[in-house]
Structures are given as structure tokens and as C-alpha cells.
């Protein structure tokens, strides 16, 4: 499980960085002085290449997501099955909680009645 959360956080970071990299490219290309100097051209080229690389990496991650090989209809069936299973489990938990409270209530009544008997048994006869 730890590797899954690590993989998810890595892929999330890749997607989150895309917008920042795109903004960087746009800011560099939209400067009032343009990209007339060799330094500005180099900066735009580097930023563009970083964005392309990140975009390619994000596309690869999206393509390799688990379940991505399923058709939409198959994914819908799996979601429906899991939703039904979840609902059954919730119903079982509600039933269990109800039974549990009934057992606790019956147990308390039994303890109360035992205490009454015990208190009567310890009272000396007159």
C-alpha cells in the first residue's frame, strides 16, 4: 500500500507541475522585449523542453494507470459491483450494530436481575 500512495503522490506532483511549467513558458515568450537575446531564446527553449518532457511523462503515467485497459462499460460494471458490495457491507454493519446493542441491553437486564437476587440473598431473614 505504501508504494501505491507513493506512486500516486509522484504522479500528482507531475500533473501539478504541468501548469507551473506552462506558465513559465508563456511568461518567457510574452515578455515585452520578446525573445531577441540569446539568453532569452535559451531560457524559452529550456522551459519548453522541460514542459514537453513533463507532459510526456504525465501522458505515460495516465496511460499506465491501473484499470485503464478496461472499456468504459466494463469500468461502469466494476463501479456498480463495488457500489453494491459497499451497500451490502453497510447494511451488515447496521444489522450487526443493532444486534450488538440488543445483546448489550439483554446483558444489562440480566446483570440487573442477578444483582437483585444477590441483594435479596444477602439480606438476613427476620
UniProtKB/TrEMBL annotation:
GO biological process: regulation of transcription by RNA polymerase II
Annotated segments matching region Disordered: 105-126
InterPro entries: Med9
Composition skew (Polar residues), residue ranges: 110-126
GO terms assigned for molecular function: transcription coregulator activity
GO CC terms in record: mediator complex
Task performed by this protein: Component of the Mediator complex, a coactivator involved in the regulated transcription of nearly all RNA polymerase II-dependent genes. Mediator functions as a bridge to convey information from gene-specific regulatory proteins to the basal RNA polymerase II transcription machinery. Mediator is recruited to promoters by direct interactions with regulatory proteins and serves as a scaffold for the assembly of a functional preinitiation complex with RNA polymerase II and the general transcription factors.
Record family assignment: Belongs to the Mediator complex subunit 9 family.
Name of protein: Mediator of RNA polymerase II transcription subunit 9
Organism whose genome encodes this protein: Collybiopsis confluens
Taxonomic placement: Eukaryota, Fungi, Dikarya, Basidiomycota, Agaricomycotina
Amino acid at each position: 500500500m505504501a508504494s501505491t500512495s507513493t506512486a500516486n503522490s509522484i504522479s500528482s506532483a507531475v500533473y501539478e507541475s504541468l501548469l507551473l511549467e506552462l506558465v513559465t513558458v508563456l511568461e518567457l515568450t510574452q515578455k515585452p522585449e520578446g525573445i531577441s537575446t540569446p539568453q532569452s531564446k535559451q531560457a524559452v527553449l529550456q522551459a519548453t523542453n522541460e514542459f514537453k518532457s513533463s507532459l510526456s511523462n504525465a501522458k505515460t503515467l495516465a496511460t499506465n494507470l491501473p484499470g485503464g485497459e478496461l472499456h468504459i462499460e466494463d469500468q461502469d460494471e466494476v463501479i456498480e459491483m463495488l457500489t453494491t458490495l459497499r451497500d451490502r457491507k453497510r447494511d451488515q454493519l447496521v444489522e450487526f450494530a443493532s444486534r450488538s446493542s440488543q445483546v448489550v441491553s439483554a446483558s444489562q437486564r440480566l446483570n440487573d436481575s442477578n444483582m437483585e437476587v444477590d441483594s435479596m440473598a444477602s439480606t438476613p431473614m427476620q
